[in-house]
Amino acid sequence: MYLNAESLQKQEKVDNYHCLIRKNHSNQQNLYTFIRVQFCHLCKQKIQDQLKALTQKLNTILSPQKMRLKLKIFKYQMMIFKN
Length: 83
Known about the structure:
The protein has three helices and four strands; from the N terminus they run E-H-E-E-E-H-H. The protein has about 80 residues and is of the alpha+beta class. Strand 2 and strand 3 form a beta hairpin.
């Protein structure tokens, strides 16, 4: 997961989840500095639980809300990454 460094504001919390700051990255034009974060095991578990709940909800909901939920699920999937 990559976040804009300014959005972190030197805190170790992102979306209310504790995380470890891994290393700094810059894109090719050096317009932004990104920080790669890795969630601790407990936080990964919380995110995965929310993902399961959202997926179950998705199966019971009709079309217009489905797209919003799919985007939310995609966001949570993007938050989880392996070492």
